[in-house]
Each structure stands twice: as structure tokens, then as C-alpha cells.
Amino acid sequence: MACGTSISATSCSSDPTTWWPGGATTPRGLRPCSRARPGSRPDCARMPTTGRDPRYAAAKQTPARRGAAGRTGGTSMTDRHGPGRRHLARAAALLPLAALAPRAARAQGRIPDGPVTIIVPYTPGTGPDILGRLIAAPLGSRFGQPVVVDNRPGASGNIGTQFVARAAPDGRTLMLQPNTFIMNPSLFRQVPYDPIDSFVPIVQLSTGDLVMVVNPDVPARNAKELADLARAKPGELDYGSPGVGTPQHLAMALFGLTANVTMNHVPYRGAAPSLQDLIGKRLVAMVLPVHTALPLAQAGQIRLLALCGDKRSDVAPDVPTLAESGFPGAQADLWFGLFGPAGLPAEFVARANADLNAWLAEPRTRDALLAQGMKPAGGPPEALGDLAKRDLARWAEVIKRGNISAD
User: Fold this and answer.
1) pLDDT digits (tens, 9 = 90+) for 209-239
2) Sign of torsion over alpha carbons 337, 343, 346, 352
3) Element (H or E) spanning 393, and its range?
4) DSSP strand pairing (334-341 vs 199-208)
């Protein structure tokens, strides 16, 4: 099947899973006061010292009686009638400050009032969706506001991406994307956004390793032998992918261009059917996420040839990279980033970036991401912006040379 076949490309993600983040904590202001001792005032019930309730102030100012014999203190106006007018006036004046304290704290980081929505332009259970739900709870805890995930799939991610491009830049609408949205402008004649100018980068969340594999009947033990086989049988070897323009497709296309060989691309509607045909030996080769490929290789259902990234994988250290196999320049990987609509305030971007970098640095975050075949990334917003610009130019050239189109 030609690479230009019109088909709805799906996410470059891992298989659907029901894994959910563990250890998420409720924001302190929402915790029940279960640790309070009888008669004590727990932390979550305390009012700011600059805005105490005048009734509480009155209770503190009025001394206890000693039977009918008289008062413990003097005979001042405060002793006889509760707090004096000065105290009441001061407490009344400070009450508005207490009410404004939470808003003032949020204003320092420019966190909007109300729920924050992370748009994921892919279906539930895909890699971007899993990652979005991983960050929602810790980000909501740090923001002090609910953070929810909204799946808006369709048109290879263009529908949800367009929604964010048109959203108000108030911090209430964000977008979690794999690097596919950077490739779409080169794959489609027209997309309803500019991948650079329509968005503000916030933070690179994670990366994922890709690996080139073959079915075990293929007489190729490494990437060079696969290239030699394709060269000996031009146009006879079929490789699959989850869809036109997915990172898996483009990684194989880049390998073919680098090795100067021709293989047939067979696009599928998702990863599962393409993987089934690879295991069933109807396909010769594919590119898969490492964490998907590893258990299949251990079971003898596929063979790992080479890592597509620039470094070896921690979970498959014996598998060489494509560069080590003689194909420098054929590197390809997955990355996931958080973006907002253009015009997003710099204060919000800085706050969200700092909060997510802190979360990414936690050991349990690394464990959670590794369980999904991802590695934590992090860094300043500018690093994600530079990565997006480099990938836009690089993949545009690959797509042009390979005559690849998703229209």
C-alpha cells in the first residue's frame, strides 16, 4: 500500500492500560480535620493571623469567671463587655483580607480560579492520555485547583489541537501532545494551527524509546542485514505502522532513506492490528515502543534489531542503536510535551514549569513513567520550544523526501 493512502493516523502511544498514578495527595486545604485533638483547633481550621474572626477574638478577650466571687482580671471596659471598640474595628477591617488571602496566593503564580483542563487530542488509553492523567492529580494539588483531562480525538489529533489553538490564553486550557502534532503540517495540505506560533511551550514531560523489530522468520539479525535483504528484494518487503505519519511510520521511512532501500509501507488503524500481523508473519518489520516490544521478544514472537534513538535503552542495553549499526542520522524517538495557547501569561508558564519539574524529579514519578515505557524529561520552556522547532524542520525534510502524505 502506498504511503500516501488516506487513513486516519492514530497516536504513537503504548497499548491501552488501566494503570493509574499512586500516592496522589489531596490539597491540604481540602483534607478533613481528622487529626485534631479534642478541644484543639487543627491547622485546617485556623484563620490567617491577619484576619481572625471577631467572635473568636471576643472569646479570647473575655476572661473566665471564678464562681460568684468576681472576675479574674480588672474592671476595664473590655473585661465587662467583651472586646473594646478598637479591637472590634480592627478585626472587622481585617476580615476582607482573610477572604482575599487564597486569591492573593494564587495570583502570585497567576493560577486561574476554577478547573484547569488538559486537552488530549487522542482516545482514552493511549500514551498521551495516560500521561495526562498521571500529571492531573499532582498538578491540581500544586495549583490548588482541579485539573481534568478532556479527550478530543480525531483527524490525527488536529481536532483537539485546533481547539487549544483557539482557546483563551487564561491558563484554564492546556494541551498534552506527542511530537506528532509537529509532523502534521508537513503531512496534510492544511492544518488549523501553526505548531510554533499557535502555542506556548511549558515543559517537556517525557521521552520514549523506539526499536526496529522483525518477525522471527526474517533472516536478519541486525539493521544492516535488514537493509541488505531489502536491497536484494526491492519493493518486496512490507513493514507496518499504526497509521500514516505516525512516529513509527516516519522512523521506518527515515531508515529506508538513510539506507537507500525501498520497502512497502502498510498503514493500519492503530497499533494492535499491525502488531498482530507482524506476529502472524504477514509483515516483515515494524518500529515499536521498547516497552511493547521487549516482552514479545522475550517470548520469541519478534526479534529486536536496533534502537531508533541516539542512546541505548536502560531496559534493553544489549540492543545497539541505528547509529552504532552503521546508519547515523536515522535517529527517531517519541517525546511528550505540555503546551498552552499563544498569549499564555509568562507568570503562569513559569509556575506550571516549576511545579512539573519538581514532580518529574520525584523518584515515584520516574517509577510511574518507566512502568509506561517513558522516561522523565523536564527542563525550561525554551528547551521544549527549541525541540519543537528542530523537529518541525527535520521531519518536514523527511516527509518531503519520502513523498509521504496523510491527505
Assistant:
1) 999 999 999 999 999 999 999 999 999 999 9
2) negative
3) helix 381-401
4) antiparallel
- Sheet with 264-267, strands from edge to edge, namely 264-267, 238-241, 285-289, 210-214, 303-307
Q: With contact defined as beta carbons under 8 Å apart, do 255 and 214 qualify?
A: no
Task: Measure the CA–CA gap between 10 and 156, rounded to whole angstroms.
Answer: 6
Parent domain of 221? 210-307
Model-level pTM greater than 0.85? Answer: no
> Could you tell me if 262 and 230 are in contact, meaning their C-beta atoms sit under 8 angstroms apart?
yes
Whether residue 46 is contained in a domain is answered as no
- Chain segment 236-284, per-residue pLDDT in tens: 999 999 999 999 999 999 999 999 999 999 999 988 999 999 999 999 9
Helical pair 247-259 and 180-187, crossing angle rounded to 10 deg: 70
Any residues with CB less than 8 A from the CB of 143 and at least 6 apart, and which?
106, 111, 116, 355
What is the domain count for the chain?
A: 2
Q: What are the helix (H) ranges across 304-380? A: 346-360, 363-371
For the domain that residue 343 is a member of, what is the CATH number? 3.40.190.150
